[in-house]
Amino acid sequence: MGKRAGSKRLVKRHEEILAAVIRRYVARGRPVGSKAIARGLSQSLSPATVRSCMAELEGAGYLEQPHISAGRIPTDRAYRLYVDRWLGAKGLNPSTECYIAEALRAHCTALETLMAKASKVLAEVSRNVGVVLGSPLDEEVLEHIKFIKLPERRVLAVVVSKPDRVENKVMRADEEISQEDLDGAADYLNDHFRGWSLRAVRMEIFQRLEGMNALSDQVISNLTKLFTWGKLAESEPAQLFVEGAAKMLGRSDFGDLRRARSLLAAFEEKAKLARILDACLKSPAQGVRVLIGRENPSREMRQCAVVASPYRYRNRVVGALGVVGPTRMEYGRAVSTVGFVANTCSRLLSTN
């Protein structure tokens, strides 16, 4: 923070002033002046001293002045320091936690329903955009497969995977195939591959096809088609639920029409959000992660902060959820909300 920030006393003074600027700007959304900060400090400092410290913080890259006559606002670097050093472990109040738990428990009978409700709860409680990413079907754990013979050489494949997803896909066989052969194929898959990810099943099927002498050529053909087609294909994306985008774009932080349009395009192009949450899944870091401004890989998201956490089925990460908002975010509330929702979803998925 510049040469004067070298002493211990000055570092503490600068930190207290910077934290006060961040809190006031987050609460009010207007540039902060030295007089307002001087009135709220624990130590008695004149507005002139505070103004000098704020100028040094600006020189160090923690504050910026949007207009010459205006006060100052925090930079991405300031928010990062605030999150890493001063945020602390703050939980939600008990009534909010109870509301979240009850809302999610009422929708935990199916994974998609739970994901949709979680995105709404995240948006409502954090007052930002709620996002929930499921795992690609390809990565889900096989529980049970059943094949049902249909007219006109069609076969219905019912695939049950954990946690709690059922996919029904209709395939067309090259030739008529009996229900007995279909039952044999299903029995083979259920006996050998229950508990495997669908990706691993597909890779193993390809390696074992030549050794499946007990199954007819038609069954082998349909097994191959099942694991290379439609929603069981490797390229099938994960589901993404987004709630509250329109409301967030109405905030003063996105008053610039061009910026708002750019951000809306990013929300509509869900692949960008999915990539950010997917990075959370692949990160070795545990718990809640916070990406601030330019830390976001997507250019359209660099006026935003993303707070995200993985959620689990037992000990296995199966998705990620979080909130997206302006960098002027109530980080404590966002981190607490995301952490609590992730833990609640993990518990509900693992006990159902």
What keyword list fits this structure?
single chain, 352 residues, alpha+beta, Arc Repressor Mutant, subunit A, Beta-Lactamase, Enolase-like, domain 1, 3 domains, five-stranded antiparallel β-sheet, three-stranded antiparallel β-sheet, elongated, disordered N terminus
Helix/strand order, N-terminal first: HHHEEHHHEEEEHHHEHHHEEEH
Number of helices: 13
- Could you tell me the radius of gyration in angstroms? 26 Å
Low-confidence stretches: 1-10, 230-235
- The top-level CATH class of the largest domain is Alpha Beta
Number of strands: 10
State the CATH superfamily name of the largest domain: GAF domain
Named CATH architecture of the largest domain: 2-Layer Sandwich
Query: Sheet bearing the most strands, described?
Result: 5 strands, antiparallel
Overall, the morphology is elongated
Q: Could you tell me the mean pLDDT?
A: 80
How much helix, percentage-wise, in residues?
40-55%
CATH topology of the largest domain: Beta-Lactamase
Numbering strands along the chain, what is their spatial order in the largest sheet? 7-3-10-9-8
